[in-house]
From TrEMBL:
InterPro entries noted in UniProt: Cro/C1-type_HTH, Lambda_DNA-bd_dom_sf, LexA-like, LexA/Signal_pep-like_sf, Peptidase_S24_S26A/B/C
Protein's recorded name: Putative HTH-type transcriptional regulator
Record GO terms (molecular function): DNA binding
CDD domains in alphabetical order: HTH_XRE, S24_LexA-like
Boundaries of every HTH cro/C1-type domain copy: 29-67
Source organism per UniProt: Acetobacter tropicalis
Amino acid sequence: MSEAEKQAMRERGERLRQAAQTVGITHAAKAAGLAYTTLRDYMNGQEMKFSAAITLARVCGVSLEWLAYGTGEPQTSATSSLREAGNDDALVKAPARGGYQTVIPWHEAAGFGEDGLRISKHWLDSTLPRDPAPLRLLTAAGDAMSPTLKDGDLLIVDTAATTVSGGALYALRLAGETVIRRLDLRFDGGLRILADNDRYPPQDIAPEAAATLGILGEIVWSGGVQHD
């Protein structure tokens, strides 16, 4: 790990410390479902899983962009109003509405709270210039899409984009599970399902099966905080 990466982790830990202190470090750990020692390690600059960053941003009432990357405003206008009113208990429940924030909900129950993820509208408009209504959040699981995606990466899926364009990443329902795979069109109208990790062989499906494939949507953004 380079010195620049270590410095970025230390700075992230300091931002987390500032955010957690506003709601109480013990409360932040408990509300995020983390051991106190784990939160302490994160604040001291240890590697933080992206899923933990998502949860801690919500618990502490700060934006994920600020906590993870140090960009944007640390607090939403809704968070500031609640703190000024002395209503810290409501911070973990109040989603931002209107103004400069929008909320992208989780696809089904993802285990990080029902409110979804607060995103600045400026970032969304500049990064994903598309209708935000069908956007949903997922997290990558496993190593099938490594090195493109890593376990715990945050994903945004456009559930309105279910028509396959060759080579794009899609969220699929296969055997009752949500998986991420790359889809390629075949000349006969079928599909080839590909994992980016060579350990997972490609799968070819006939046109009849392709027509009923459970495509949840196209992955339009992915991001992670820090990986080994």
